[in-house]
Structures are given as C-alpha cells and as structure tokens.
Amino acid sequence: MTMPPKVQVSLTTYNHGAYIAQAIESILSQRTTFEFQVIVGDDCSSDQTASVIRDYERRFPDRITTLLYAQHKGLHHPEQLFRTVMGRCTAPFVALLEGDDYWTSPDKLQTQIDFLERHPECSFCYHPVSVSYADGRRLLWPPILGAGAATTITIEDFLRAEPWPEIPTASVVFRRSALKPLPDWFVAVLNGDTALQLLLAHEGSIGFVDACMAAHRKHAGGVSRAFEDEPEAMSDMALRLLLQFDAHFEGRYHELVSRHIAYRWRAKAFAHRRRGEYSQAIGAFVRGLQAESGDWRRHVRRCEFAAQFALPLAARRQLRRVVSALERRVPTFH
C-alpha cells in the first residue's frame, strides 16, 4: 500500500471460524480507485478464527492488521472490541462487517464512497442486505427507511419510522469525522450497531443506496439469532439502549423516542404478568404510561394499554377494533 487508505474496514469477529475466510475474501475482492485497509478484531475466539486471520495478515501484511484479545470481553462489555478497533481507524471513511457476514458485490465500497462524496450532508449510508439461514432459507432484508438511489433521511425520520428501524451492520459505511468519542455506556450494550447508527444519525443525514451488496447469516451461534430465540431479553436490551440514548442527548429527541420507550415498557409489563410477577408488572406498567406523551393518539394508546392490562382477551380484541376505527375516522386530528 503506497498511499494512506481512504477507507478502513472494521471486521469484528468471535468464533466465526467457519465463516471468517469468506468475510475477508469478500473485502479483498473489492474493486476501488482508492486504497483500503482491513482491521480485524478478534474477541479471543476459542475456535480456529484467530489462526485464519493471522494467516491472512501474513499473506497480506500491507492490507490487513489484526487485533487479538487475550481474554473474551463480550460477556460483560460486548462492544469493547469495536471501540478498540475504532481507535485504530483513522481513514476518512469506515466500513463495517462482522465475521459471519460477507459482501456480495465487488463494487460495494466504491459505490458507497461515491455516494457519500456526492452527499456531504450524510454521516453514513447503507443498503439492502440478503439474509441467509443455516437451513438454506434466503430472503431480502429490505430497506426500512427511504427508497430510491439517492434517498437521504434525518434522525427524526429514523425515530419516526414504524416499526423500529433495522439497518444491517454489513451495509454501513460512515465518515470517521462523524463518530465522536463513544460514551462509556456504549461498551455495555449488546445492540451496539443500533447505538452507533443513532449516534451517527445525530451528526448528519442517513443515505440509502438502492443495491443489495451484502449477506447476513442467521445461525445458531449468531448474536442476531437471540432476537428470535429470546425476544423478551432482546426487548429489555432495546429498552436499555433507548433510555441511554434519551439521557445521552438530554431529552433532545424525547418526543420522538418516547413512544418506542413506552412500547418496550409495555412489553416488559406483559412479560412480568405472564410469569406471575405482578409487582414488577405493575411497575413496568406505570413506567409505560409515564413514558408516552404527545398527541391524542398516544393518550388513546395509554387508555388502550391500561385496558389491555386488566381486561380479558375478548374485551381487549373489541377495544383494539374500536381504537383502530377511531384512528381511521380522525387521521389528521392532533
């Protein structure tokens, strides 16, 4: 590498021995008019992951740098590895990839850097990603936000989106200048990808590139599998992140984020009630009512939530029909 890299790829991994070679090869296959470098961070894998990445570093010393933890940090500080890798990233742009995912287009980096250079208002951009399941199923992870080759949105659009936005990590390329020092709470959240997107979205618009250029694996050892296997735990995790985000920006986005917080408190209340934990259920129930404020629809949802918490199933269904009819009849009233 004769010139400083324009892009550095943050490739974080843990026990991805079966997949890491494909991830690295998908990066090395990129066709670009600029230099790029790969920084691979391994969280003390117990399989062959470390030996695979050391072999690639030996074969491509100018292209690949490895950071190998001697002790696994993920259990208590899941995003510590990412923060360490970011400390080594000094290029103008950073692309993200995890060791069990891979890029499917050799033009991905060039396409996204071209986009960001055409859109200086954007702090990062993303694109659709396909999802590959261990049992052979495949589907497209579609764009949750925006549509079209030159769409840009704001953090307010991000927070208004229904449902909660999902931007695949393998699709993200961001400006290094948009990433401020990561707060202390960042290393303790499991969903650091969403936390990072929120922090970046505060610094600029979000760009959407209308091309599927990466694949995300769903397998038994993947972190994202927990969203399917342990939905209650993942909902609690999302609630913690939202509360941290709201506090971090001192309530600047509270009106927009409050409904997401209220939704997570509601989910927590019903989970406690299902387990017969009635005092905890009531506490979460009250927090859910307190969290949501704003237009008339939110007050209607408060009443609906309260009734759902106390009424039998048949009555809850009837209430839902009444509320839906009311929302349809008065769509613009605030």
Care to describe what's here?
The protein is an alpha/beta fold and 334 residues long. The chain has two domains: 7-225, Spore Coat Polysaccharide Biosynthesis Protein SpsA, Chain A (Alpha-Beta Complex), CATH 3.90.550; 229-329. 43% of the residues lie in helices and 17% in strands. It contains twelve helices and twelve strands. The chain has helices at 20-28, 49-59, 80-88, 108-118, 155-160, 192-201, 226-229, 231-248, 254-274, 278-291, 296-310, 313-329, and strands spanning 7-13, 36-42, 64-68, 93-98, 102-103, 122-126, 129-133, 138-141, 151-153, 173-175, 205-208, 214-218. The strands form two sheets. An eight-stranded mixed β-sheet has the order 3-2-1-4-10-6-11-9, sandwiched between helices. Helix 9 runs antiparallel to helix 10 (278-291) and helix 11 runs antiparallel to helix 12. It is globular, with a radius of gyration of 22 Å. Mean pLDDT is 83; it is low at 144-150 and 330-334.
Concise overview:
This protein has 334 residues and is an alpha/beta fold.
- Domains counted in the coordinates: how many? 2
Tally of separate helices? 12
The separation of the N and C termini measures 59 Å
Question: Architecture of the largest domain, according to CATH?
Answer: Alpha-Beta Complex
Instruction: Give the CATH superfamily of the largest domain.
Output: Spore Coat Polysaccharide Biosynthesis Protein SpsA, Chain A
CATH topology of the largest domain: Spore Coat Polysaccharide Biosynthesis Protein SpsA, Chain A
Q: What is the CATH class designation of the largest domain?
A: Alpha Beta
Sum up the overall morphology in one term. Answer: globular
Helix content: 40-55%
Order of helices and strands: EHEHEHEEHEEEEHEHEEHHHHHH
Q: What Rg is obtained from the alpha carbons, in whole angstroms?
A: 22 Å
Structural class: alpha/beta
Looking across the biggest beta sheet, what order are the strands in?
3-2-1-4-10-6-11-9
Q: In terms of per-residue confidence, which ranges show pLDDT below 50 for 5 or more consecutive residues?
A: 144-150, 330-334
> What can be said about the biggest beta sheet?
8 strands, mixed
Extended strand count: 12
Q: What is the percentage of strand-forming residues? A: 15-25%
How would you state the average pLDDT, rounded? 83
